[in-house]
Amino acid sequence: MKTILITGATDGIGLATAKLLASQGHNLLMHGRNADKLKAAVEQVKRVSPDATTDTYLADLSNFDEISLLTSMIKKEHQSIDVIINNAGIFKTPQTITNDGLDIRFVVNTFAPVMITQSLLPILSDHGRVVNLSSAA
Questions:
Q1: How many domains, the chain?
Q2: 46 part of a folded domain
């Protein structure tokens, strides 16, 4: 049984991955940026796998402070993780520029996975894996 972080776990590939991994008995750290969608995603995972172990993390990955808080919380609550699945991504959005003046797609799709991975490397198990997803959405 592995402990697996999935960013963008509230729908699409992230949610499908969470359901599959939960059915295999893995411990899931599910990330989302919307509390209601995250709660609904966990409910869907529990319908597939009632005994699934899930921890939830809320963070807007277009915000550097929230990325740091996310990884700090994960490190505080978990001594080790086995897999980081950087799945969160953004394509269409009405607001294309972050409060820091950067393109939101670049921050979420490029900076966030790097920051998350670098921050969590100290607790990534010896045989840990990092999986980065992207799509042409």
A1: 1
A2: yes
Query: Which amino acid, one-letter code, is at 8?
Result: G
pLDDT tens column, 61-99: 999 999 999 999 999 999 999 999 999 999 888 889 998
Specify the pTM: 0.95
Task: Evaluate whether residue 72 is within a structural domain.
Answer: yes
Three-state DSSP string of the chain = CCEEEECCCCCHHHHHHHHHHHHCCCEEEEEECCHHHHHHHHHHHHHHCCCCEEEEEECCCCCHHHHHHHHHHHHHHCCCEEEEEECCCCCCCCCCECCCCCEHHHHHHHHHHHHHHHHHHHHEEEEEEEEECCCCC
Could you list the residue range(s) of the whole structural domain that residue 40 is in? 3-132
